[in-house]
Amino acid sequence: MRMSRLLSMLVAVLAATLLLAPQASALPAWPSVGQGASGPNVTTVQYLLRHHGHGISADGAFGSATRSAVVAFQSANGLTADGTVGSQTWPRLIVAVRQGSTGEAVRAAQTQLNRYGAGLAVDGQFGSGTDRAVRNFQSAHGLGVDGQVGPQTWQTLVGGGGGGNPSGYALPLDRSAASRGDYAGPHWNSTPAVDLIVSYVPAYAITATVADHFDSASCGIGLRLLRPDGSRFVYCHLSARSVADGASVSAGTRVGTTGDTGNSGAPHLHVEIRTSDGVARCPQPFLLAIYDGVAPPSLSSLPTSGCTS
Ligand SMILES: [Zn+2]
User: Fold this and answer.
1) How far is the CA of 249 from the centre of ligand 1 (A)?
2) Topology match between the domains 25-159 and 180-301
3) Which residues partner with 236 through β-bridges?
4) Any residues with CB less than 8 A from the CB of 179 and at least 6 apart, and which?
5) Nearest by Cα to 157 from 20, 45, 253, 69
6) Cα–ligand 1 centroid distance for 238 (angstroms)
7) How far does residue 38's CA lie from ligand 1's centre (Å)?
8) Ligand 1 centroid from CA 183, angstroms
9) Do 301 and 186 meet the contact criterion of CB atoms below 8 Å apart?
10) How far apart are CA 75 and CA 187, in angstroms?
11) Quick one: pLDDT at residue 1?
12) pLDDT in tens, 70-103
């Protein structure tokens, strides 16, 4: 009697284990995110820490304030307080969100969905657009399609490699902030550049670069993003920079907020590309390639005049 009860309990536990974890082996590993890291996974960690009551800024750069918040979160949750978000901390940090949810955890989910080209405004409002993006993502990744960002969907989002942009590149704005036509448009004068008409929205590094602060009467609050060979991306008219002078940033790291400083008629982001010889090149073909998810052309192949596409 006792034995058979024990056996049937064992069978039930086994069955439940099999039923609950059919996809466990297909999930990517949780990434390890620690001090010095940057990019959307860091922004995600920061939004989730904010959800849990830690008042840090979600700037995509894992500095000492983020590390302190992680250590505090780990201590409070009985985890090893090593300041790195890995396979033990992620499952405690994530928050299940679904249509109707609001706040920082929704921003975290939207940040992740945009890594896969969802093009959502990171507004913390889980509406029908976010719901659609979640369902598309779940369907594309063999997950149960329920529109809820729960543990398996979180792990697949955070652990996956992203998509929608060629690896190593990101658009300078959220995908929803500017259309393909905006990236193709001519500059208002003959300077090789593009003006992206947006209000006060996050601006991101196009690729791995070193941030170089500068200010000028025409550019206003400006930022050069330097590549090792001396070529650079230049942003103008920012309302604020959110990376330190000299900081290394990766593609998709938030570097500032667009604005209306300098010689600017209305809020917009002015983007220039200059090769190592200082020559300004048309950014349109380069940005359109990123928008279209194909490898961008070499900077030296970009035209120096007639910048439209
Ligand atoms: Zn301009």
Assistant:
1) 23
2) no
3) 270
4) none
5) 45
6) 12
7) 28
8) 12
9) no
10) 53
11) 43
12) 999 999 999 999 999 999 999 999 999 999 999 9
Which token pair is 96? 């299940």
* Percent over 70 (pLDDT), the chain: 89
Span from the CA of 284 to the centroid of ligand 1 (angstroms):
13
Give me the architecture of the 180-301 domain, per CATH: Distorted Sandwich (2.70)
Q: What is the pLDDT of residue 36?
A: 87
Task: Report the topology of domain 25-159.
Answer: Muramoyl-pentapeptide Carboxypeptidase; domain 1 (1.10.101)
Sole residue written with tokens 């009467």:
217
User: 198 C-alpha vs ligand 1 centroid, how far in Å?
Assistant: 12
Strongest mean pLDDT among 22-26, 115-119, 162-166, 274-278: 274-278
Residue 187 has pLDDT above 50, yes or no: yes
